[in-house]
Design a protein that fits this description.
The complex is a heterodimer of chains A (235) and B (788). By secondary structure, chain A is α/β, with parallel strands linked by helices. Chain A is built from 7 helices and 10 strands. In chain A, strands 6-7-8-3-9-10 form a 6-stranded mixed sheet, with helices on both faces. In chain A, strand 4 (63-68) and strand 5 (71-72) form a beta hairpin. The termini of chain A are far apart. Among the domains of chain B are: 1-57 and 262-399, no CATH class; 60-87 and 215-251, 2-Layer Sandwich (Alpha-Beta Plaits); 90-209, no CATH class; 472-640, no CATH class. Chain B contains 21 helices and 23 strands. A 6-stranded mixed beta barrel of chain B has the order 3-4-9-6-8-7. The longest helix of chain B has 55 residues, at 641-695. Classes of the chains: A alpha/beta (235), B alpha+beta (788). The A-B interface holds A 49, 53, 56, 58-59, 78-79, 82-83, 85-87, 89, 91, 93, 95, 97-103, 106-107, 109-111, 113-114, 135, 137-139, 146, 153 and B 399-405, 418-420, 422-423, 426-427, 430, 688-689, 691-700, 780-781, 784-785, 787. The structure holds adenosine-5'-triphosphate and magnesium ion. Adenosine-5'-triphosphate (ATP) binds at residues 15, 22, 24, 42, 44-50 of chain A. Magnesium ion binds at residues 48-49, 165 of chain A.
Chain lengths: 235, 788
């Protein structure tokens, strides 16, 4: 049987308190298996990003537990959480977050420098099809190219988990497909557990499972019998 | 008044950037404070001096002579241009009082019979005037009284002309003539060791062997009088009476000293504020430019809504004006209090009857005007940028800042560095103007500190060199009348005396083809050990037998150079004179003097006399010696070198101490302000990058490293800049502080540089720690959610 990567129990996250408190997550129960591609969908404000941030060690739950393998992410000290991010997690954001003063290669090096068993920078850029743009600065790259550099940066350290928050949100269809292809490619070849937030129901068909959010809770989880290939998508 | 949304935005911006705004306001405030303090103090001091001089009839000219019958006075009074004149008997004596360890020097000045002096009046501070026919009653000057705890009722034992008398102090007075009481031949006031005694004329004259005669005349001039003209007339009439040449205020010790002090204050008021103001302008510029850059989208939006360019520009100018007004108010208040404090320090040193710090409205108005100009200068480029933003910007997508590769050589070097170091280097190169600004700001703070450190170091060095290298005697004796050198044998027999050397320092008139000056010529023996000629580089200069050695200041006054001839005339009435070549011109260390081989000097003036003796003593016998010296009538002055040294140190500390601490505080504010502002801007611009680094798994300390790296690199670049700037500034300041009597050498004092650098680094470190807190609090989720 497959090992589980994340297990959450009655996970809650509340912003503020009193009458104005916002309950972003109200009791999430979720098990994420090793190597699977999990797609998170749901209306705006339903708590998708909040969950992803907690799983990625950027935020902490208000109550409930969340485990990455044996690590209790809710209670681990700050230092351990930083260490966790560094060793196990790759992030991809909607707005790329490349460092403008570093070239594509250097943005990736930023991660390989501190990782235990990174792949080579050239391999990482090759995986996203950007070998020839390695020495360009972010300002010299298109949005899609920037996002692919961000993906290369995220996977270069061979993370156990890749967390993607609307990676295609700022991109057009064709570029979006290239980016998704990169993510799928990595999930398949490297076996990286991948969580991907999207508003696009078409993209949801790429996943092994689709988690539907609503108002801070999981409404239902769909299992896709067959995953669709990225190039077959059209939206 | 209703606040428009833009006004509200202004005040929120100000609040959001409050610490950066405060840094600007503080730096500006420091400049304004120095301006208000120094300008106000200069005005107050000058006003107090002028009022005192006028009210108490400070002499315009003074002429000393050997002796003249009182009847000559009527003749002198006919010289056109003289408003009032006073004939006086004066002389030097040696004094002691119950409990005094060492003999003190005093100047006796006669008071006219039955009335206040018409020239050089007196302010009676305590006690009463001496009875006109009273004997043994004296007034003493305030500084001397305070330094030695002398009050009316106490007595002084005084020896003048070999006659010892006990005088009763009946009152304490001060006079414009002795705002600083400086002993003849000395360069600085030493109230512990030198005092002025005013005695009724009859009493003073008979004591000084001047019954029915006088030996000193002081005059005030009519407003329209030509000083040089009156001086010439006076000299001509007094010449055959042994006149030594009349001197103006520029040569009266007290007036001259006071003038030098005022000049230094004015230098301070002119040099320092611009330094602070320019740094404040830089800071303001950085802060505002950055604000406009981050707000490009908002500015575009405002314009898209229909706000006029002018309105938007004014919005940012307002921000600057608010800041600078705050700085001006802060600085004025601070300057006012500093002024009060400085006035209280000065009151202890300057014997002026009224010395209150008062800055007129023009000073505060000036401060405000200067601040507004600074605000407009600092805001101009930012406002221009804001005006230039096109409305379309608001709709354009955000683009990453463009960075370029650096020169190949730097890139190759960069390869060896980790990516964070590369971030730092590329950012500095990307914003060269801003980096330069920070480097200059930090450099200036450093330069100020170097300068203040240098000033105390120079003063300390002056004292140490003077007593350690040039004047190595333990005791200087001044004879009441000039003596034949054989008295040295008797001096050598005094208790504890190890070595004796003669002091030959006759006052002469030096004449070149164009100028005439009265000064002292020192006769130096070739093998002199105790009193030596030292040039500004601290080299011992051997006396010349083939001509005079002149200090460069004196040579310049006489307009002579090596090879020119100078005529030397004795001033003691004997009219002996000699013409001598100038053998050497040196930059002298202290004083503007002339030197000659002793033997040749004696020959030239045809009189083998000495003016005093220099002693090296056994400290064990110091007390015995002091006791003996008090009893010797032929001695008019005794100076123990260590006491002189101590009072000199005190004098420098009083002046330099306060200013050093002001410099220290203000420079720290400046360094901290610049570092904070640099770190803050870096942080604001890189917030996203720093958050990204954190997300990628870099620890807090690593992420702060980027910030530290940038500010550290700037600081590193600022160190050499600041040290060089400091050296230049010190040199320049020293030259501005140079007076005829003191030249401050430029000396490389590594301690001053080290201390200055440490202070600046510490101030920057505090600023960085402050900003680092922001890195630690970085809200990763929030930063990454937004575009920027
Ligand atoms: N820092 C915060 N303070 C207060 N409320 C917050 C904060 N961050 C998120 N929330 C609230 O938590 C809820 C969940 O937000 P979250 O970002 O997880 O939604 P989402 O599902 O990712 O939405 P979207 O699809 O629009 O990105 C929302 O109601 C949001 O307003
Ligand atoms: Mg979201």
């Amino acid at each position: 049987m497959r090992h589980s990567v994340f297990i959450t129990r009655d996970l809650r996250r509340t912003y503020g308190d009193g009458p104005t408190a916002v309950h972003a997550l109200r009791g999430i129960e979720l098990v994420v298996d090793e190597g699977e591609l999990l797609v998170l969908v749901g209306p705006s404000g339903s708590g998708k990003s909040t969950l992803l941030n907690i799983l990625g060690g950027l935020d902490r739950p208000t109550s409930g537990t969340v485990h990455f393998r044996d690590l209790d992410l809710g209670r681990a000290p700050e230092r351990a959480v930083t260490e966790y991010r560094r060793r196990h997690i790759g992030f991809v954001f909607q707005f790329y977050n490349l460092i403008a003063s570093l070239t594509a290669r250097e943005n990736v090096e930023l991660v390989t420098d501190i990782a235990d068993e990174p792949m080579s920078v050239d391999d990482a850029l090759a995986l996203v099809g950007l070998s020839d743009r390695a020495d360009h600065f972010p300002a010299q790259l298109s949005g899609g190219e920037q996002q692919r550099v961000a993906i290369a940066r995220a996977i270069a350290k061979r993370p156990a988990v890749l967390l993607c928050d609307e990676p295609t949100g700022a991109l057009d269809v064709a570029t979006g497909i290239r980016v998704l292809e990169s993510i799928l490619h990595i999930n398949e070849t490297v076996g990286t557990t991948t969580l991907l937030i999207t508003h696009n129901t078409d993209i949801a068909r790429l996943g092994d499972r689709v988690v539907h959010f609503g108002d801070g809770t999981i409404r239902r989880i769909d299992v896709n019998a067959t995953r669709v290939a990225a190039q077959d998508l059209h939206w | 008044m209703k606040l428009t949304p833009l006004d509200r935005k202004s005040s929120r911006d100000l609040w959001r950037l409050k610490l950066q705004a405060l840094a600007v306001a503080l730096v500006l405030g420091c400049g304004i404070a120095i301006f208000v303090m120094a300008t106000g103090m200069y005005d107050s001091l000058e006003r107090a001096r002028d009022a005192y001089y006028t009210r108490y009839r400070m002499a315009d000219l003074e002429a000393a002579l050997v002796r003249a019958p009182l009847a000559v006075g009527a003749d002198l009074a006919t010289i056109p241009g003289i408003a009032a004149l006073e004939l006086r008997s004066t002389g030097l004596g040696i004094a002691s009082f119950a409990g005094s360890l060492e003999p003190l020097s005093v100047r006796i000045v006669s008071l006219p019979h039955d009335r206040a002096p018409r020239v050089d009046g007196l302010v009676l501070l305590r006690g009463r005037w001496p009875a006109t026919d009273g004997r043994d009653e004296a007034l003493i000057n305030e500084a001397f009284a305070e330094a030695n705890d002398l009050i009316p009722g106490k007595t002084l034992t005084v020896i003048v002309k070999g006659r010892r008398r006990t005088l009763r102090i009946v009152g304490i007075a001060s006079s414009p003539e002795f705002v600083f009481a400086i002993a003849p031949g000395e360069l600085l006031p030493e109230p512990e060791r030198f005092g002025v005694l005013w005695l009724p004329n009859a009493d003073a004259s008979s004591w000084l062997d001047l019954d029915g005669a006088f030996n000193d005349v002081v005059v005030t001039l009519a407003p329209s009088a030509n000083t040089d003209h009156v001086r010439t007339m006076l000299d001509r009439r007094l010449e055959r009476l042994g006149g030594r040449g009349a001197i103006g205020r520029d040569r009266m010790l007290s007036a001259r000293y006071l003038n030098d002090e005022l000049g230094q204050l004015r230098t301070l008021a002119r040099i320092l504020p611009p330094v602070f103001l320019s740094v404040a302008v830089f800071l303001l510029n950085v802060t505002l430019t950055r604000l406009v850059v981050t707000e490009r989208a908002n500015i575009g939006l405002l314009k898209a809504f229909g706000y006029a360019d002018r309105t938007v520009g004014w919005h940012y100018a307002q921000f600057a004006l608010a800041l600078c007004t705050l700085g001006a108010i802060l600085g004025s208040v601070l300057g006012r209090f500093a002024g009060d404090y400085v006035a209280s320090v000065y009151r202890a040193v300057y014997r002026l009857p009224v010395l209150e710090y008062a800055a007129g409205p023009e000073v505060y108005g000036g401060a405000l005007a200067v601040s507004i100009v600074a605000a407009l200068l600092g805001a101009s480029s930012a406002v221009r940028n804001a005006v230039r933003v096109a409305p379309a910007i608001a709709l354009a997508p955000p683009a990453p800042t463009t960075f370029g590769r650096l020169a190949a050589s730097i890139e190759r070097f960069g390869r060896a560095l980790d990516p964070r170091a590369r971030m730092v280097i590329r950012r500095i190169v990307r914003y060269p103007r801003r980096a330069t600004t920070s480097v200059i700001g930090l450099g200036l703070a450093l330069a100020l500190l170097v300068m203040s450190g240098h000033f105390s170091a120079a003063a300390k060095d002056l004292i140490e060199t003077n007593f350690g290298v040039a004047q190595r005697m333990d005791v200087t004796l001044t004879f009441a009348a000039r003596q034949h050198p054989r008295v040295l044998h008797e001096v050598a027999r005094l208790p504890g005396v190890l070595t004796v050397e003669p002091r030959t320092s006759p006052e002469v008139v030096l004449e070149s083809t164009r100028h005439t000056r009265r000064d002292v010529v020192f006769g130096i023996e070739p093998d002199a050990q105790l009193d030596r000629i030292i040039d500004i580089d601290r080299h011992v200069v051997a006396p010349r037998t083939d001509g005079l050695i002149l200090a460069s200041g004196l040579a310049a006054k006489l307009e002579v150079d090596v090879g020119d001839r100078v005529r030397l005339r004795a001033t003691d009435g004997r009219r002996s004179s000699a013409e001598l070549p100038v053998a050497q011109v040196i930059r002298s260390f202290v004083g503007a003097a002339a030197y000659f081989d002793r033997e040749r000097l004696v020959d030239a003036l045809r009189e083998n006399r000495i003016d005093g003796a220099l002693l090296r003593i056994d400290p064990m016998h110091r007390r015995d010696l002091a006791l003996r010296l008090k009893e010797i009538p032929a001695i008019a002055g005794v100076a123990f070198a260590d006491r002189t040294e101590r009072s000199l140190r005190k004098l420098f500390e009083q002046g330099a101490g306060f200013f050093s601490s002001v410099f220290l505080t203000f420079s720290m504010v400046m360094a901290g302000g610049v570092a904070y502002s640099a770190a803050r801007v870096t942080f604001a611009e890189q917030q996203r990058d720093l958050a990204t680094l954190r997300v990628l798994g870099f620890a807090r300390s690593h992420v702060s490293g980027v910030l530290l790296g940038e500010v550290g690199a700037l600081l590193f670049a600022a160190l050499p800049v600041g040290l060089c700037l400091g050296a230049l500034l010190s040199q320049w300041m020293m030259s501005r502080f140079e007076t005829e009597l003191f030249s401050f050498p430029y000396l490389f004092d590594s301690g001053a540089y080290g201390r200055a650098a440490t202070v600046v680094i510490a101030a920057a470190a505090v600023a960085l720690v402050w900003v680092r807190r922001d890195v630690d609090r970085l809200n990763l989720v929030a930063v990454l959610k937004s575009r920027e």
